[in-house]
Amino acid sequence: MEEKEFDYINVIPLVDIMLVLLTIVLVTATFIVQGSIPVSLPQSKYAETKNVKAYQITLTKTGEIYFEKRKLDLNGLDQVIASLDKESQISIFADKSAKIQKLVEILDILKKHELKRVLIKTELTK
């Protein structure tokens, strides 16, 4: 038997696969942009609406505390937290080089005022 050399490559199956992948990407991107699957919600006359405010506390590596980009000390933070609604969401951005004692003091203030919706933001490692 004699082997034949290829004169050309059939790219039609490759194009078919690429079109399927493109369709999948476009459909997925539509859901990501909208944030969720679109639904029509039922209506209610007496539903209770609650706007939960989210706040940000930043702890720098030098130990400085910022609440919503405003520099505060622990006493100032205590006063601000005391005035917040207990359902407020707090996100803590603490530098990985910051002293853990400062972070614990911030968490103590949040616990003292019974704020339970607290997040410590992290980066996802690869």
Provide the β-strand percentage band.
15-25%
Strand order of the largest sheet: 3-2-1-4-5
Into which percent range does the helicity of residues fall?
25-40%
**Helix count, per DSSP?**
3
What class would the helix/strand composition place it in? alpha/beta
Calculate the mean pLDDT score and round it. 82
Largest sheet: 5 strands, mixed
Number of beta strands = 5
- CATH topology name of the domain at 54-120, in short, is Nucleotidyltransferase, domain 5
* N- and C-termini, Cα separation: 52 Å
Which CATH top level class of the domain at 54-120 fits? Answer: Alpha Beta
Low-confidence stretches: none
* Rg: 27 Å
What would you call the shape?
elongated
CATH-derived architecture of the domain at 54-120: 2-Layer Sandwich
SSE ordering: HEEEHEHE
Please characterize this protein's 3D structure:
By secondary structure, the protein is an alpha/beta fold. It has a domain of 67 residues: Nucleotidyltransferase, domain 5. It is 36% helix and 17% strand. It is built from three helices and five strands, in the order αβββαβαβ. A five-stranded mixed sheet has the order 3-2-1-4-5. Strand 4, helix 3 and strand 5 form a beta-alpha-beta unit. Helix 2 runs parallel beside helix 3. It is elongated. The model has no long low-confidence stretch (mean pLDDT 82).
